[in-house]
Amino acid sequence: MLTIRNLEAYYGAIQALKGVSLHILPEEIVCLIGANGAGKSTLLHAISGLVPLVKGEISLDGVSLVGRSPEEIVALGISQVAEGRQIFAPLTVLENLELGAYQRFRKEGRRQIAQEIERIFELFPALKERKAQPAGTLSGGEQQMLVISRALMSKPKLLLLDEPSMGLAPIVAKEIFQIIRDLRKSGTTILLVEQNAQMALSLADRGYVLETGKIILEGETAELLQNREVKRAYLGKGRKGFLEE
Amino acid sequence: MIGLAPILESQEMSASIILQLILSGVTIGSIYAMVALGFNIIYNSTSIINFAQGEFVMLGGMFMVSLVGPLNLPMWVAFPIAVLAVTLIGTAFERLCIHPLKMPSVLSLIIITIAGSILLKGGAMFAWGKETFSLPHFSTEKPILLLEATILPQTVWILGIIGMVVLLLALFFRFTIVGKAMRACAANRPAASLVGINVKRIVLLSFALSAAIGAIAGIIITPISLMDYERGAILGLKGFGAAVLGGLGNPMGAVVAGFLIGIVESLCAGLISSHYKDAVGLVVLLMVLFIKPSGLFGSAQVSKLKKF
Ligand SMILES: Nc1ncnc2c1ncn2[C@@H]1O[C@H](COP(=O)(O)OP(=O)(O)OP(=O)(O)O)[C@@H](O)[C@H]1O
Ligand SMILES: [Mg+2]
Q: Cβ of B194 and A50 within 8 Å?
């Protein structure tokens, strides 16, 4: 579905990605793990057309994405939930969701979108209760649910999730991972970026490990979980206390 | 204060004078409010202060003068044409000066708008010369008696049209998907482009919208306060004052602050001296900013995040 070959990304003189190649098959959940500053977010931004200078190849079902604007890429079927719960804080929950379907409004009309939002509300009753509230007043977990739902409103073929558990209490993070598992059942293809490697590897099909702009390891998640390098760097002792919660 | 004493001698008269002054303050204040609204619309979608906003007001008045005078069109035909002309200028300004820049800094954008305002002013001097122009009032000039003061029918027009504009804008931002997209851009620009909003188009739209609002303000004020090529600067400055006073990014605050500056100014002109009229609004602005830097209605939290 998504194929990336030899991707390089630059911020001015800084090279944040140094020849990354990866692919995602339909209905797969692929996770990407790596330390702070490895370039995970940069990779997602590059896919979404937000990095001004990229070299290499990114294609979705054979259509090249390099050089396209973010809104074209959304139209082609890629939706990103960016790092750090990027809600439209002063807008209501309902308005946030409507904007998720911004490009569909012209084609499908208000009624269709309203039905879709009702479906989202069935999945997330907490959002329904708060639909008229400014999104900024939601709790962290609710905000994360909101941005994931908003991204789903564009009916993406591929969903990019950037550290959805970041900054959430472990129990809330678990809920979010449950949501991702449910999405998988409904057949959504997902690229999941996580620092919480244990959680990510336990729900994904395959994984990639990114280090300073390069993929250093890839494989089935079961293999990666057994890999010594991964164990040492990402599942090490320091993380254990947090994970066992 | 010397001038005040004789007026206050007659209680009855002073009440009617003050009412009269407030009414004329409301009139000019409503224009400041419109200009401030224009500032806000562009600020919200781009975080830049468009210093050419005042020129849009001037151009609105000038186009109307030409359409009604030399071209002899009826008012109701000339009005939309003048608004359209200025909207096109606003759009062209964005396309030629703002749009082509890749990742410009906020400061350089602001400087570009200053350059734009000088250019528009120069162009207007070229086209219309340095004369001061007037326009016929929209309806009769016979004053209407209101309590103990009189009010010009044109003032009623002005307030009515502004009421309409504010109402339409509020409806637009609250109920249309494009209006919501504009608010989303103001709230979180990267997130807006990730949901598929074409942010550059929203910026273009915000320039078109505030040019149109500026033009409307210029058209309705010209019958009362006349228009010349230089008027844009001072109207822009006052409108900017109102926008800051109301808390940048807060349209309703801008409207209230616009009226406030207009009324304070008019009271000062009538009771103290009209020489200080222009200074008063700015002194009020400075005082408020010393005490509450985020403006009367801005939240301190939001103002910390502002780039300008
Ligand atoms: N806008 C930017 N301008 C300049 N350098 C940047 C920019 N964004 C990221 N970088 C640099 O690119 C590198 C990769 O950053 P990136 O945000 O992709 O890392 P990450 O893997 O997502 O990290 P984290 O886990 O902290 O989110 C870092 O060295 C970072 O400093
Ligand atoms: Mg990141």
A: yes
Average pLDDT over residues A73-101: 95
Q: B157: exposed, middle or buried (C-beta count within 10 Å: 0-12, 13-18, 19+)? A: middle
Q: Residue B81 C-alpha to ligand 2 middle, in angstroms?
A: 51
pLDDT value at position B301?
Answer: 53
- Which tens digit of pLDDT belongs to each residue from A167-181? 888 899 998 999 999
Q: How far is A223 from chain B (nearest CA, A)?
A: 34
- What residues pair up with A158 in beta bridges, in sequence order? A78, A189
- CA proximity to B198, closest of A102, A203, A51, A238: A102
Enclosing H/E stretch for B151? strand B149-151
Task: Please give the average per-residue pLDDT across A208-225, as a whole number.
Answer: 91
Give the per-residue pLDDT at B231: 92
The answer, yes or no, to whether any atom of ligand 1 lies below 6 A from the CB of A42, is yes
Q: Is the pTM of this model over 0.90?
A: no
Compare all CA atoms of chain A with the CA of B183 and give the residue at the minimum distance. Answer: A91
The interface predicted TM-score of the complex, written ipTM, equals 0.89
- Rounded distance, CA A108 to CA B208, Å? 27
In whole angstroms, give the CA distance from residue A168 to residue A96. 21
Contact call for residues B98 and B172 (beta carbons, < 8 A): no
At A131-158, the pLDDT tens digits run 999 999 999 999 999 999 999 999 999 9
Residue A185 structure tokens:
């059942």
Centre of ligand 1 from the C-alpha of residue A41, in Å:
7
> What is the reported pLDDT for A239?
47
Determine how many CB atoms are found less than 10 A away from the CB of residue B273: 13
pLDDT at A83: 94
What residue owns the CA closest to ligand 1's atom 2? A11
Helix or strand run (H / E) with residue B149: strand B149-151
Contact A171 CB / ligand 1 (< 6 Å): no
Nearest CA in chain A to B102: A52
Regarding the beta carbon of A26 and ligand 1, being less than 6 Å apart is answered no
Q: How far is the CA of A39 from the centre of ligand 1 (A)?
A: 6
Chain B contacts of A79, Cβ < 8 Å? 194-195
Q: Identify the residue whose tokens are 């250019």.
A: B119
Domains and CATH numbers, chain B: 4-305 (1.10.3470)
Q: What are the E-state strand segments in chain A? A: 2-11, 14-24, 29-33, 53-60, 63-64, 78-81, 158-162, 189-194, 206-211, 214-220
Distances (CA, A) of B119 to A242, B115, B124, B202: 61, 6, 9, 24
Identify the residue whose C-alpha is closest to ligand 1 atom 31.
A37
Is residue A80 within 8 A of residue A160, CB to CB? The reply is yes
